[in-house]
Description:
- The chain is mainly beta.
- Helices cover about 15% and strands about 45% of the residues.
Amino acid sequence: xxxxxxxxxxxxxxxxxxxxxxxxxxxxxxxxxxxxxxxxxxxxxxxxxxxxxxxxxxxxxxxxxxxxxxxxxxxxxxxxxxxxxxxxxxxxxxxxxxxxxxxxxxxxxxxxxxxxx
Length: 117
């Protein structure tokens, strides 16, 4: 019984508990093409530095610069997911992300690269 209690507590503190958040972009680049899309996701991080199991991190996204270069396809604040699409122009887009599990807001810059043939 004590063994199972210790395993449960270690699992809770090392795998389930959230100690921070991480921002992931997929794909890595956004191109000046109206079909080019990017998904930005806020991932809760556990004590081992990996994604916390069965947890999500609610987040708010604010486009600081380059609002005229992209359009927002979908925004899910509960799960911390933002999907954007390029309008076909090159430039830099700055997004401020306020996560529920991070101490300070994060700022990411996305450079919209010109199309290559």
